[in-house]
């Protein structure tokens, strides 16, 4: 039998694996119509894991990875194909993509590789491993803001100061002064870095108790984590499982708004709850059971009748016909179709040219896309020509359901709203600058005093909410009274009252 190097001389391990294989064979046979034969190494993984971690095995058995070999995938037409590689290594081509094909592919590049039952595998499957079959997708993702989310937060001293102030531990001394301590790593991992991703490193090996007995495995720091900008032990950025949940790696998961709502929630990035109450979200909630979330390309009308997040920002969208007409090409850079960045510190602005926004320097020599008074750092942002091209792609998606007039007026209203909200942020920022200049607040840390936190709410919560609600239309609950214009107005007055009281 090929690749039998995983068998150790130890009789107990061999017996355990063989016993597990016998136990799982009926399940494998029962599922045979759903997946193609796995490699011998993957069969040995299944021989134990079918018994001890049946949930992940069942997920895999129901997956496309289990049903299709790379050879079969390459026979698909270019439009229907889900893998962007033109060739794959011979040892992968003829088998379904199983446990060993993902966890044993590039072990020489992984600091978390270890010997497991006589075979070398790694714990963390990274985008660099997925690159073997999906190079275009990984290339797109690696240049995105999501892939750089850890660096964009932790390598930017302004953002880092905000994170440290919000999540740091506060104590009160005998004089009633609030003292700030840096946040613990565990708190960071449970808050901002849960979505942005952690830096996973290997701190030697350690023994863990399992249902099969003690195992010696890598001791991983800042693990588990599935953040979009996770820095993996092989140095790659991100986690494909953030959207394509392991071990099914389902395209349907990634196309449903629940996945995006894991991180995109109120009050700072309220895209998820805004979508829920929008007309598109209401149609999704009412009709998603009738839609087809698995087809490639994803055809408007045939497969779905209202956009989800993926339809606008990522999926290969087409209009059905004898040969489907492509409306928007698939992308795993989720900002590639966006012309305006409505989430930012402090104002809206053109999308950055690089997903690594920590490289930005504005006219105030701060790593921010605009100055505090709104001047954009144009050198680091896309130009007008690129903005127009991206707006054209977004409009093309909209006009698969809406008239051109409806679509054009939607974007005109949206752009006016964004400009007006920026004016409200500018008014609050001018008051904040006045407070710093007059000693009402100290700006050594611009986020730790009460008036400063009101200012942060103006652009991080309320302005963002109105922008997102306007972009997704039909979410008037959020544009008006739920963290919307009412709060922009009320909060501005509270900042003014704070300054007046100090005088």
Kindly describe this structure.
The chain contains 23 helices and 11 strands. It starts with 10 loop residues before the first helix and ends with a helix. Helices cover 45% and strands 9% of the residues. The protein has 503 residues and is mainly alpha-helical. The chain has helices spanning 11-30, 40-52, 54-61, 64-67, 70-74, 90-93, 99-103, 127-130, 135-142, 149-154, 157-167, 185-190, 192-196, 251-255, 257-261, 271-277, 279-287, 309-313, 384-398, 404-437, 450-472, 476-480, 485-502, and strands spanning 113-116, 119-122, 169-172, 178-181, 202-210, 213-220, 298-300, 317-319, 325-328, 340-341, 349-350.
* Low-pLDDT runs: 1-33
| CATH fold node name of the largest domain | Hydroxylamine Oxidoreductase, Chain A, domain 2
Strands, total number:
11
CATH class of the largest domain: Mainly Alpha
- Please, what is the average pLDDT? 92
Proper CATH architecture of the largest domain? Up-down Bundle
Summarize the biggest pleated sheet: 3 strands, mixed
Radius of gyration: 26 Å
> Which percent range describes the beta-strand content?
5-15%
Neighbour order of strands in the largest sheet: 7-8-9
Query: Roughly how much helix do the residues carry, as a percent range?
Result: 40-55%
Task: Considering the chains and any ligands shown, give keywords for the structure.
23 helices; Hydroxylamine Oxidoreductase, Chain A, domain 2; 45% helix; disordered N terminus; 503 residues; 3-stranded mixed beta sheet
Fold blueprint:
Layout lengths: L10 H20 L9 H13 L1 H8 L2 H4 L2 H5 L15 H4 L5 H5 L9 E4 L2 E4 L4 H4 L4 H8 L6 H6 L2 H11 L1 E4 L5 E4 L3 H6 L1 H5 L5 E9 L2 E8 L30 H5 L1 H5 L9 H7 L1 H9 L10 E3 L8 H5 L3 E3 L5 E4 L11 E2 L7 E2 L33 H15 L5 H34 L12 H23 L3 H5 L4 H18 L1
Parallel strand pairs: 7-8
Antiparallel strand pairs: 1-2, 3-4, 5-6, 8-9, 10-11
Helix pairs in contact: 1-2, 2-3, 16-17, 20-21, 20-23, 21-23
């Amino acid at each position: 039998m090929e690749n039998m190097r995983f068998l150790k001389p130890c009789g107990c391990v061999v017996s355990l694996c063989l016993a597990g294989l016998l136990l799982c064979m009926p399940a494998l046979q029962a599922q045979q119509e759903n997946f193609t034969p796995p490699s011998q190494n993957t069969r040995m993984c299944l021989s134990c894991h079918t018994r001890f971690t049946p949930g992940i095995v069942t997920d895999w058995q129901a997956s496309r990875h289990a049903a299709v070999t790379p050879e079969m995938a390459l026979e698909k037409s270019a439009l229907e194909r889900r893998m962007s590689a033109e060739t794959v290594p011979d040892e992968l081509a003829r088998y379904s993509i199983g446990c060993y094909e993902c966890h044993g592919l590039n072990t020489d590049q992984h600091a978390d590789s270890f010997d497991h039952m006589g075979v070398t595998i790694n714990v963390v499957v990274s985008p660099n491993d997925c690159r073997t079959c999906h190079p275009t997708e990984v290339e797109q993702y690696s240049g995105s803001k999501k892939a750089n989310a850890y660096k964009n937060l932790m390598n930017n001293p302004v953002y880092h100061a905000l994170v440290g102030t919000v999540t740091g531990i506060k104590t009160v001394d005998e004089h009633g002064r609030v003292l700030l301590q840096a946040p613990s790593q565990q708190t960071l991992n449970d808050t901002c870095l849960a979505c942005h991703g952690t830096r996973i490193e290997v701190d030697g090996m350690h023994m863990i108790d399992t249902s099969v007995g003690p195992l010696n495995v890598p001791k991983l720091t800042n693990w588990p984590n599935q953040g979009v900008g996770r820095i993996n032990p092989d140095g790659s950025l991100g986690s494909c499982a953030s959207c394509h949940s392991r071990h099914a790696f389902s395209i349907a998961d990634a196309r449903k708004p629940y996945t995006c709502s894991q991180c995109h929630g109120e009050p700072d990035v309220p895209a998820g709850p805004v979508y829920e109450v929008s007309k598109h979200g209401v149609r999704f909630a009412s009709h998603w059971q009738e839609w087809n979330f698995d087809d490639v390309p994803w055809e408007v009308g045939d497969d779905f009748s209202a956009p989800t997040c993926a339809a606008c920002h990522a999926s290969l969208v087409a209009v059905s016909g004898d040969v489907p007409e492509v409306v928007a090409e698939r992308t795993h850079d989720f900002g590639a179709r966006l012309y305006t960045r409505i989430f930012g510190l402090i104002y809206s602005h053109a999308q950055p040219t690089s997903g690594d926004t920590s490289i930005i320097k504005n006219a105030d020599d701060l790593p921010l896309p605009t100055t505090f008074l709104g001047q954009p750092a144009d050198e680091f942002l896309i130009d007008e020509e690129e903005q127009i091209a991206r707006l054209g792609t977004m409009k093309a998606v909209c006009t698969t359901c809406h008239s051109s007039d409806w679509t054009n007026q939607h974007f005109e209203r949206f752009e006016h709203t964004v400009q007006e909200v920026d004016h409200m942020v500018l008014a609050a920022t001018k008051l904040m600058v006045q407070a710093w200049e007059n000693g009402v607040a100290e700006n050594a840390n611009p986020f730790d005093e009460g008036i400063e936190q009101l200012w942060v709410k103006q652009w991080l919560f309320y302005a963002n909410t109105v922008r997102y609600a306007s972009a997704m239309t039909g979410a008037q609950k959020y544009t008006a009274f739920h963290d919307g214009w009412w709060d922009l107005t009320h909060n501005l007055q509270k900042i003014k009252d704070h300054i007046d009281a100090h005088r």
